[in-house]
Write a structure and sequence with these properties.
- It is a single chain.
- By secondary structure, the protein is an alpha/beta fold.
- About 20% of the residues lie in helices and about 40% in strands.
- It has two helices and eight strands; from the N terminus they run βαββββαβββ.
- Strands 1-4-3-2 form a four-stranded mixed β-sheet, covered by helices on one side. The chain has a four-stranded mixed β-sheet with strand order 5-8-7-6, covered by helices on one side.
- The relative contact order is 0.20.
- The model has no long low-confidence stretch (mean pLDDT about 95).
């Protein structure tokens, strides 16, 4: 029986560009770095980026999957990332369920969201 998601991998043809974005721009700390694969860990959950020979260019269907990154204060994080050049396609907005969401793209065109729970 499957009882949890343990990781998500984003494949790319330009690992260096994604590493700079996820590590330096977003401020995520790599758990492990290899020439073709980098791993970030959040508790039991892992976010990975890696080279894949069947991936080229930007994501042609960026809305197929969205990665939600939890934050305590979405407005502070939005301001911090904007100052680092991240372009948001949706600024922070409160959802009908009470939480907050802001949406942006990584350099390969993958959709990421900042998510702050309802207070």
């Amino acid at each position: 029986m499957i009882d949890r998601v343990v990781g998500i991998t984003i494949w790319t043809d330009n690992l260096k560009r994604l590493l700079i974005f996820y590590r330096d721009t977003l401020g995520l700390t790599p758990r492990s770095e290899h020439a073709d694969f980098i791993n970030f860990q959040f508790g039991e959950m892992r976010l990975n980026i890696g080279l894949h020979n069947r991936v080229t260019g930007s994501n042609s269907e960026p809305y197929r999957i969205m990665i939600n990154l939890g934050v305590d204060d979405i407005n502070i994080e939005h301001t911090r990332l904007m100052s680092r050049g991240v372009e948001f396609i949706r600024t922070p907005e409160q959802e009908t369920w009470g939480g907050w969401v802001a949406t942006f793209l990584d350099p390969d065109g993958n959709v990421l969201q900042l998510l702050q729970g309802a207070s």
